[in-house]
Amino acid sequence: MSSALDDVLGSKAVDGIPLTRRTVIADLASQILASEPAVGAFAAEANARATADTAEAVARQAADTAEAAGRQAADTALDTRLTAAEGALAVGLKPVSASVLVATTGNVVLTGEQVIDGTLTAVSDVAVWNNADPRQNGVYTTGPGAWTRRADLDTGAELLSSRFLVRQGTIYGGYILANTNTTAPLVGTDNITFTEFLKADPSVNAEIATARDGTTVLNTRLTTREKIALRRDQAVSSAAGSVATKEATLDALLASVNVRLSRIDAAAAGPIVYADPSAVGLGNGSSWANAYTTLAAAFAAVVAGGSVYSNSTQATPFPTANITGAIPNNIEWVTNKGAAGETWISGKLTAVWTDMGAGIFRCVPVGTVAAAAYDLKADDSAGTVTGINLTTAANVADLAEWGIAAADCVAWYGLLEKEAVGTATPAEGKWSVTGGFLYINPPGAPVLATVQTLACYANTTDGVAFTKTGTVHEHLHIHGDLTVFFTPSATAGTGYSVKHNNAKGCVVENVRSIMCGYHAIGFIGTSEEGNVMRDCLTTQHAPDSATGVMNPYVFYCDLTRDIPDAGHKGDNLVFLGVPLLKTSGAPLALTLGPGLGYSHTAGAHIMGGIIWSRCLQIDFLAELAAKHAVVITSQYKFIASALSGGTFERFDEKTWPVKAIGCKARGRGAWFQQEVDYYDCRMTRDGYGAQGDLLVLMNSSAEVWHFRISDSKIWTGECRRGWSGTQVGETVSFFGCQILFQATGSNAAFNPAFLETLAASAGQFYIERCVIDGIVGNTMSLFQGDGTGGGTLYELCNVNMLSKGDNIVGSRITEAFDSSNGGVAPKPMSYWTSTINGGSTDWLSAPSPLSIA
């Protein structure tokens, strides 16, 4: 019969016929059966198949309905998770709290030890997050009796936006749970709600690490079932369009989900906190739009292993910040990730000024005033106003060699002078503080409206200072493009651009410091090991100093013990020696003391293992003096150290605690400093006439000074003397150097010399394998000794007296003072296998072998 039925229906099998047609066929079969008994078997088969098809259709419909309900439930659950997580982000996430042992998988009784998610508790921290009574949710510490809420999460304020890691558990082990209340709940009264943020497994961490760089988005965190459900729903909901169109729409939907999940995952893992003073969003640090507006808030939110991304412009900078408290270890501050590609911090403070008449204005300042300015602005690269010309061949060459743009080095001017005593009537161009008011008298008699716009001041604050409460903060890495502007305090320990208290293994990179105070970048306090400054620029440093200690880059430790191998490094640091400048562009102070780098400890202790490499120092004192017709008294150092003790072996560079490698100094104020081993360095000194000592070793009977210079090039112009001192140590040495010394003027008070030893306690200079070219004047000597101390040994040297016009006549190669000119019997100066060319040999003490041409 089946073949006859197939003939009736054609080649299509019965199972492929819609139900309505099958019913018709069954009716026809009944009619046939009534009239033709011969086809009974045929009709019976048709009825049976129709009945089976109906049952199958009903079953399929039920299955489809159930599957659709399951898909809807899965989609609703996913959306609930996303919405809850995003809600938590909207109220701002806190750093991850202490972890818990397990998280509940359903309702639990809050008493006694029990098995939760496959783990037996034993006075354990448990996250209760899905109890039937949500008011009971929270973090508890278990016990044999009633559980208690853990002390750090037992109030609504502590629970709000909290997060914590679940350490163990079959289902939730490794997950991070987060509170989703929008306001602080009243514990015991309000519902307390949490959501599952992520599984903290290695693959998730790798995804986050990739996403941090902004190069990719996170892969979908959806399960396979959730992906399938989304695809089926999309296919059902799309009434029209090609398969490709539907797939494209589905891909867009999945991408949207990925974005939501990646944002949640990144925030839950805590790697990035955003900071931008111009942000106007929620202010929770979750994105650039919702960035924190202060650095203090951002660093309070970042967690260990995370990052602070900052963005600000010169027009809208961050205010200064003092970062204190529980600063986490292993964090980075990236200062060039935002739209501006840079971060600015400014100590400039504005105020509401009152016109007091007679050109004087006053305000109520915040803090202790360090400086006041009027119409503060930058000069051009040619130094039209200030005289700081960055376009000269020498400056262009040096800046290019160190990769510095001239635009980043232009001099700022506009400072007012401080009156010597407090007064309410400062002279024109000056300021003063008295009676709790800041008084200024800007030049040119401006009106109040102009003063409101152009006047500003700075207090004794740092640009940004890090101080971890009670301990050392470790491995904070600052890099990107950070500029700290206008913190010009002369008060000890203030006015830093970036300051680290009690730091270990921290790195500061890519910082530009303009118009800073006591130091520019420094590691101080108990910062005893492994800190680095790299690729930084500082200019216009410190108001004034006669002490010579206000160096821009400093490593200091106040521990009262030796630190023989601190391991600090200063690499590729640039210091442009420009003082703070008045509204006219002239120097604010004429006594200056900074030098590029300085390392020291508290008291009589050694700090060793200090390396300064490829650093550049240029001072512009000659240009300023010429432009503004002033006399500047300068004792700029170069690389300096303040140590007591140490071996300082002349022929063993490993015994020197501080090393300068590949560094360069140029200008009228630069000089080498004590207790440093200089290697492959370059010193170009434009002399200062009668004031122009290249290096004066301090006249202190309490200290013995040492330095070692090798394979370096030294050029001096118009200096009074080169190296001189009353307390020269036994390890003042030159190895393989090229030296050109010029002293062609005359001075009634001095007999200028390249090398001079003066006191009875002085040690011995040692010069080996050096080429020394001396251009000296009529009354000057190339080498000079006075007193029973001193004595100079030259070995394998080539010494040349060079002619400069007629000045060579009467010049002395070496001179040893005798009683006729105030001295006592000197120690000998010895020349071993050396050659001396030119000049006279008055009072020459030279045991053989000596060659004099």
Q: What features would you describe in this structure?
A:
By secondary structure, this protein is of the alpha/beta class. Helices cover 19% and strands 30% of the residues. It is built from eleven helices and 63 strands. A 15-stranded parallel beta sheet has the order 10-11-14-26-30-33-36-40-44-46-49-52-55-58-61, covered by helices on one side. Helix 8 links the parallel strand 10 (272-275) and strand 11 (307-310). Helix 3 packs parallel to helix 7 (243-269). The chain starts with a helix and ends with a strand.
Question: What does this entry show, briefly?
Answer:
The protein has 853 residues and is α/β, with parallel strands linked by helices. It has 11 helices and 63 strands. The protein is elongated.
Furnish the topology, listing elements before pairings:
Blueprint: H1 2-9, H2 19-35, H3 40-91, E1 102-103, E2 115-116, E3 119-120, E4 125-128, E5 138-141, E6 148-149, H4 156-159, E7 163-165, E8 175-179, E9 194-199, H5 202-212, H6 224-237, H7 243-269, E10 272-275, H8 295-301, E11 307-310, E12 318-319, E13 321-325, E14 331-334, E15 343-346, E16 354-357, E17 360-363, E18 369-378, H9 393-401, E19 412-415, E20 417-418, E21 430-434, E22 437-441, H10 448-454, E23 455-459, E24 464-468, E25 473-474, E26 476-479, E27 482-485, E28 498-501, E29 503-504, E30 507-509, E31 511-516, E32 521-524, E33 532-534, E34 537-541, E35 553-557, E36 569-571, E37 574-577, E38 591-592, E39 597-601, E40 610-613, E41 616-619, H11 621-628, E42 633-634, E43 639-642, E44 658-661, E45 664-667, E46 676-679, E47 682-686, E48 695-697, E49 705-710, E50 713-717, E51 723-725, E52 728-735, E53 738-743, E54 755-757, E55 765-768, E56 771-776, E57 781-785, E58 792-795, E59 798-801, E60 812-816, E61 830-832, E62 835-837, E63 851-852
Parallel strand pairs: 1-4, 10-11, 11-14, 12-15, 13-24, 14-26, 15-27, 20-21, 24-28, 25-29, 26-30, 27-31, 28-32, 30-33, 31-34, 32-35, 33-36, 34-37, 35-39, 36-40, 37-41, 38-42, 39-43, 40-44, 41-45, 44-46, 45-47, 46-49, 47-50, 48-51, 49-52, 50-53, 51-54, 52-55, 53-56, 54-57, 55-58, 56-59, 57-60, 58-61, ...
Antiparallel strand pairs: 2-3, 4-5, 5-6, 7-8, 8-9, 16-17, 17-22, 18-19, 18-23, 21-22
